[in-house]
Structures are given as C-alpha cells and as structure tokens.
Amino acid sequence: MTNNTDKHISDMEQASSLNQDMDDSELDAHIKAALQRESHIPFTRQVAAIVEEVSQTFSGQHRFLLLWAVGKWIGAILILIFAIYQFFQQESMMGLIAYASLTIICVLAEVAIFLTIWISIHSNNRQQEIKQLELQIARMNDRLLQPQNGEANNG
Predict the structure, then answer these.
(1) 20 to 30 A from 30, CA-CA: which of 43, 69, 77, 133?
(2) All residues at 6 or more sequence positions from 6 whose CB lies less than 8 Å from its CB, including other chains
C-alpha cells in the first residue's frame, strides 16, 4: 500500500512542478503511466467497488423506482418458478401452452427489469466518474495557477 502511495505522491509532485510549456506528448505519457499503475486493482477491491456502485444506485434520487423494480423482479421470479412447476404437472396440451407462455413472459420481464437496473447502475457510475474528473481538473488547475500567483507577488 505504501508503494502505491509513494508513487501517487511522486506523481503529485511531478504534476505540481509542471509548467504550461509542457509538451502534450509528455503529459500523455505521464497520464498513461499513472493509469497503468492504477489498472492492477486486486479482485477484492473490484468486488468492493461493484458493491459500492450498486448501493449508491439504490440510495440515489430514483431509489424508490429501483426498489420497486427489484420487487417486481422478485415477483416475476416467483411466478416463473410457479409456471415451470405447473408446466410439468399439466396433462393437457392447452395447459402446457398456457404455462409455457407464462414462463416466456416471465423470462422477458426478468430481462427487461435486469437491463433497466443495469443501465441505471452504469449511468450513476458515469455521472460519479465525471464529477471526479471535474474535481481533479479543478485541483490541477489550482496547482498550475499557484506558482504563477506566487511569482506575481514576489516580483
């Protein structure tokens, strides 16, 4: 953990020492190196990040709608189990067709609800990433402007 922290501190020192004359290719190389170091996240941290994303999605602005969707999802699963059980208990062709149709409708409902929840999780995740990038850009802008303000006050 301290090794990554040391690398992060050295990245911050390098970023604070950057001037506006830096070539874009140098900046790109610096960013790629930092991203490469951060891309090797352990599996447990990945699972924790996924759990956090899901919990943040269900605590957001539309949490009631998502909780309602999860309730419908559970209801569709129960109906699906009932329909499958009844399908194998039927002796008539009409009963088989009815319960097979109900099974197909339940599966389609499951897929639709799952996709709705999946899209909202990723939408929430993208909004959070954009906010983090805006914050990092603002901090980098403040660091780059600090030496200029210091030189203006000294001169």
Answers:
(1) 43
(2) none
> Which pTM does this prediction carry?
0.53
Q: Tell whether 104 and 83 lie within a shared domain.
A: yes
Comparing CA positions, the residue from 128, 139, 144, 140 lying closest to residue 19 is: 144
The count of structural domains within the chain is 2
Q: Over the range 111-137, which residues count as b (16 or more CB within 10 Å of their CB) and which as e? A: eebeeebeebbeebbeeeeeeeeeeee
pLDDT tens for 93-104 read 999 999 999 999
Q: Say whether both 91 and 33 belong to one domain.
A: no
pLDDT exceeds cutoff 60 at 24:
yes
Per the structure, the complete domain to which residue 79 belongs is given by 43-154
Question: Which whole number is the average pLDDT over 67-91?
Answer: 92
Q: Give the angle 140-146-149 at the CA atoms, nearest 5°.
A: 145
CA 123, 129, 130, 131 torsion-angle sign: positive
